[in-house]
């Protein structure tokens, strides 16, 4: 199984246009960029997980082939508005060879998606319903949606567990997308080989109205779900307040509830601004709090090969 991180940024990509905050300034200086979060899984099937408005450029950058299926997590624009770009695959094959792409989403998510993209149905995509807890009827690859809580504006939000192979030779991959809680943490979520989890903020904010995941909160999930091979963090934003930054008064800057702090001194860890700072502080925290790693900060274009390991227990 190959996992390609097509994008690793939040809803408006990063750095944000016209933003001079400490995070965007540092990223601009370094030439860093995070497109809207989306993943491509290549295994016995090619699976596109979410398709935000950056899909067209992500397809080109990653030489992406036609996906066998698309899995949508929820109805927010950064997770499905790129669907039109899939038309490129249809336009350049002989008419007789084309088959529409199945697109899975929950019933509630489809209600929103269909209003916008109803005209793509039949010719380009096929509407398929993802029911939490019920595996999708896809050959060779077991895909099970699970219900996530991403607030009242995304009632139908789901994550997906992808499994391939049998018994000791199986590979399990868990993708949570945007969420604050999982209502029912079943055994299916435990001990995946790879967990991809959102890290929208570094510190949990005072008010988490958008129901998003901070790295501080994600630590609890990493501890409970115990990924065997690695955790990858995605969906980074510039919503944290960096101490001393005059832009902390911006609407998007959230005050920390109780910042992640060193266990002995009680000093808050530095709020990371760029990729290197993120990975450095994540490494420190995982060591200081004995969190099973590695916990890796994903970047756009990162490709991970997930091999079966018959020798593992
Ligand atoms: Zn999002
Ligand atoms: Zn969302």
Count of alpha/pi helices: 6
Number of strand elements? 13
Question: What structural class do you assign from the helix and strand content?
Answer: alpha/beta
- Principal-axes shape call: globular
Please mark out the parts with pLDDT under 50 across 5 or more consecutive residues, or reply none.
none
Biggest sheet record:
7 strands, mixed
Q: List cofactors, ions and other ligands.
A: zinc ion
> Rounded to an integer, what's the Rg over CA atoms?
19 Å
Considering DSSP H and I runs of 4 or more, what fraction of the residues is helical?
A: 10-25%
Oligomer: single chain
Termini separation comes to 20 Å
The CATH architecture is 4-Layer Sandwich
Could you tell me the CATH topology label.
Metallo-beta-lactamase, Chain A
Assign the CATH class.
Answer: Alpha Beta
Number of domains: 1
> What is the CATH superfamily?
Ribonuclease Z/Hydroxyacylglutathione hydrolase-like
In the sheet with the most strands, the strands line up as: 6-5-4-3-2-1-13
Which strand-content bin applies to the residues?
15-25%
